[in-house]
Write a structure and sequence with these properties.
By secondary structure, the chain is of the alpha+beta class. It has helices at about 1-5, 10-20, 30-45, 65-90, 95-100; strands at about 10, 45-50, 60-65.
Length: about 100
């Protein structure tokens, strides 16, 4: 979620669409999954929100990454690299994981 918001501010429905697109349709999050996560990220100080009404539509709550959110994302990325390295050691031929991250 933090990585999606690092691309720029967004609102709930657009985030759901982005998750679906990034996963080639394999992940189909629901509102019931997304909004509790966004509320938790807000409580942690990783995102901030702002209500806006675009000229062509209805009022939406936009979510933006904070500096603390960027730091948390960097920490999660470091952890992910560690996990993928460990998995590469356990699963022969799984170097694709690190190649996708540009770490090989």
């Amino acid at each position: 979620m933090l990585a999606i918001l690092s691309e720029g501010e967004s609102y709930g429905y657009a985030i759901l669409k982005r998750v679906r697109a990034l996963s080639a349709g394999e992940l189909a999050w629901t509102d019931g999954m997304l909004y509790p996560l966004l509320h938790r990220l807000r409580r942690l100080g990783y995102v901030t929100t702002e209500w806006r009404t675009p000229p062509e539509g209805r009022r939406r709550r936009y979510y933006m990454l904070t500096d603390d959110g960027r730091a948390a994302l960097a920490d999660q990325q470091r952890q992910w690299v560690t996990v993928t390295r460990a998995l590469n050691d356990v699963w022969p031929g799984s170097g694709v994981l690190l190649t996708a991250l540009g770490e090989v």
